[in-house]
């Protein structure tokens, strides 16, 4: 009688015959469990174990590399959703736009701010503790039938964010990029509060100017061809001048300055274990400065 042949089965699927073994653990695996390796095949467990031992790629500033600019997509989505909300309920603009100081009258209308006001009027804006306006205004845009640009306001801003944001997010990593965007938006609103507190403003332009500043700083840091980058910055600065007569130049300039400060800290912090702490420290210091400026201005207005 001939000896009975031994049958080998997959260690994960005992009922499936298998004649291929994992090159790392040498356990038999079926076609469903085979994972391509540099040499032969590996089982799912060995693949996961190997992935844990591989260091994730980092950007030049220390952020995690991600192939999909998810933060940019989310920011664009939030701006578009807010705009659709405005179309359905226009009162959202008055409720959440960036407004430093105004008076709401008995008729519900907004009036020019004065620290002394008659009965029936009450303060409105950051001066009345509505600090959320410093950020919510950066996600709103001019209604389609109002302002100099109408619907072009959000269209131009979102196209700019699409073009710039994807590049800068890939250079910084998601967390650093989000911090840059929010601090730039806040920087723009704070400069509006300091210079033109009674002027209602909306738009993501301040944050986008901050992203534009990051694009320039990172291009220099990475040694890119600066000819095209310099032309872009010249156009951005030209628009800053032109916008002085059309839109809130204070928001643009504040976002540009805040974005530049944050990105310089990102790009030129020394390598090593201290780098994330230095970068975070600069961001927190800028945030603290902006808070102090807001408190001081609100105190002066009141």
Automatic annotation (TrEMBL):
Matches recorded under Gene3D superfamilies: Rhomboid-like
Family: Belongs to the peptidase S54 family.
Coiled coil segments of this chain: none
TM ranges: 65-85, 147-165, 177-196, 202-219, 228-246, 252-269, 281-300
Organism, scientific name: Streptomyces phaeofaciens
Organism domain of life: Bacteria
Protein name: Rhomboid family intramembrane serine protease
One GO term describing the cellular component: membrane
Membrane-topology descriptor: Multi-pass membrane protein
Segment forming the signal sequence: none
One Gene Ontology biological process: proteolysis
Residue stretches making up the Peptidase S54 rhomboid domain: 129-266
Record carries keyword Transmembrane helix: yes
Chief subcellular location: membrane
Subcellular location as annotated: Membrane
Matches recorded under Pfam families: Rhomboid (PF01694)
């Amino acid at each position: 009688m001939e000896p009975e042949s031994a049958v080998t089965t997959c260690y994960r699927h005992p009922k499936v015959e298998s004649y291929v073994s994992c090159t790392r653990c040498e356990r038999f695996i079926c076609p469903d469990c085979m994972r391509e390796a540099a040499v032969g095949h590996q089982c799912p467990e060995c693949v996961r174990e190997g992935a844990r031992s591989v260091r994730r790629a980092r950007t030049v500033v220390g952020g995690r590399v991600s192939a999909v600019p998810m933060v940019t997509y989310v920011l664009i989505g939030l701006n578009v959703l807010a705009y659709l909300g405005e179309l359905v309920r226009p009162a959202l603009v008055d409720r959440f736009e960036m407004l430093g100081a105004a008076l709401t009258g008995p008729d519900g209308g907004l009036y020019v701010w004065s620290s002394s006001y008659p009965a029936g009027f009450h303060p409105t804006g950051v001066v009345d503790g509505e600090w959320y306006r410093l950020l919510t205004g950066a996600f709103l845009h001019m209604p389609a039938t109002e302002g100099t640009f109408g619907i072009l306001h959000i269209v131009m801003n979102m196209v700019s964010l699409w073009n710039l944001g994807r590049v800068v997010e890939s250079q910084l990593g998601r967390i650093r990029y989000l911090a840059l965007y929010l601090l730039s938006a806040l920087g723009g609103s704070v400069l509006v509060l300091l210079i033109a507190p009674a002027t209602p403003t909306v738009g993501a332009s301040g944050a986008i100017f901050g992203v534009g500043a990051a694009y320039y700083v990172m291009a220099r840091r990475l040694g890119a061809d600066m000819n095209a980058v310099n032309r872009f910055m010249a156009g951005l600065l030209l628009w800053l001048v032109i916008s002085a007569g059309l839109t809130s130049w204070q928001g643009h300039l504040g976002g540009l300055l805040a974005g530049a400060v944050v990105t310089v800290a990102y790009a030129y912090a020394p390598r090593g274990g201290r780098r994330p702490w230095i970068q975070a420290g600069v961001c927190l210091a800028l945030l603290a400065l902006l808070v102090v400026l807001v408190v001081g201005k609100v105190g002066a207005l009141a």
